[in-house]
Amino acid sequence: MTLRITELTRVLEEFTRMSIRLPAAQRLSFTTLSVLHTLSTRGPKRLTELTATEQVTQSAITQIVTKLEREGLVRREPDPTDGRAILVHPTPAGTAVIDGRRDERIRRLTALAERLTPAEQEAIAAALPALAHLVELSAPPTTHRSAPPAP
Question: Residue 149 above 80 pLDDT?
Answer without folding.
Answer: no
